[in-house]
Amino acid sequence: MDGVEGIHRFQLLNFTDIENPVYSLTTPMAPKTEILFLGATGYLGAGILTRLQNHPKASEFSITALVRSTEKGEALKKFNPTLKYAVGSLFDKADYPVIEDLGKKADIVFSCADADYLPWTTALLKGLKARFDATAVAPVLIHISGTGILLFTSDPAGDHSDLDLADVKAVPPTALHRNVDLAAIAADEAGYVKTYLVCPPLIAGLASGPMKQAGVVGDGKGAWAAVHVNDVADMYMLLFDKIVSGAPGVGHGWEGYYYLENGELSWNAIASAIGKALVELGAAKSPEVTPFTKDEITKYYKSEFASSVVSSTCRCKGERARALGWTPKYSVADIVAGFKTEVEFLWKKAQAEGKVDLTPNYGVDAMLQRFASLSA
To answer: Is residue 8 part of a domain?
Structure first.
């Protein structure tokens, strides 16, 4: 689920006062809490940053965002003039000294950008350790992972609970996202970081390109747990509030896996909703869902693994998050209904730009990119 450019307007939360803050957020003369934000311009990150900037204690935060360009940084400052930014990439080794330095200054890190690339994580953790060595206070890392880790278990279709530590630990180190997860947990076990891993499944609105006919891989009967992006953002902020208030029972490390879900969606249901939306737009003649051909799978998914994901079944139970007080607001029906708005936006965008991006970032992308051609 890694961040793509956001197109939703996010609803803001009403927060209560924070008591007994870990970082003395309510002390008038206390230094501001240094927050490092990764993924600020991304699909998920944009909503979380909006909530953070509208937090009742926002005046007591000093937020620094890592962005890919000065233009993106200046765009963020238009919404929050006090926000600071550093230019760098999580995927450029030359920028790792920047990431390490940012870690040295951070009390709390919101990591919403990437869940799989270990080198930048290593640089960040090195900086966070230096922060701990200098302050004797373990900084906080709230990191986006994903229930894709469960695809690599012996029973991905089973109802995996985040409260079952044996099950959580049984995920093999070769699983999706697991390399970064394990590095973050090791830092927690070493005592110099407190790690919290937010694990969403399918997130509403991952699509990034319109199509001409809805399609599925295989029979489309595979199903994944699902959650709305706003509910994921809400969980980030709930964790943040619980952490800084020193609330009891907020697990971290191995007990810091928070699976998120509010029902499940089959690939057939997703493709059907997209097909109906395209017909209503006049962009397709039939809402019929048909299987991808072998050639289409090769063209749009690029790899056997990617295509296998969107024909798979993966289930989980978000019990730890709910025990903490997370109450998702959006049902599966809300998620399905949202595909119409998403497809309409993307179709109009493609028409305005005269092109469709055929580079898939997520499994659902290929469902939206099939036969994507403005001249077709």
So the answer is: no
Residue 137 lies in a domain: yes
Is 234 contained in some domain?
A: yes
- Lookup result for tokens 């009742």: 56
* Structural domain that includes position 66: 33-205+228-259
Place of tokens 């898939």: 360
Q: In what order do the strands lie in the sheet with 140-144?
A: 84-87, 61-67, 33-38, 108-111, 140-144, 194-199, 257-259
Reply yes or no on whether the pLDDT at 95 is more than 90. Answer: yes
CATH of the domain at 66: 3.40.50.720
In this structure, what DSSP letter does residue 171 have?
S
| Helix, strand and coil in the chain, % to nearest 5 | 45, 15, 40
pTM, to two decimals: 0.78
Instruction: Identify whether 59 is part of a domain.
Output: yes
Note the pLDDT tens digit of each residue in 35-94: 999 999 888 898 899 999 999 999 999 999 999 999 999 999 998 999 999 999 999 999
* Angle subtended by helix axes 267-281 and 332-353, to nearest 10: 50
| Rounded-to-integer distance, Cα 312 and Cα 287, Å | 22
Residues paired with 63 in a beta bridge: 35
Q: Say if CB 219 and CB 310 are below 8 A apart.
A: no
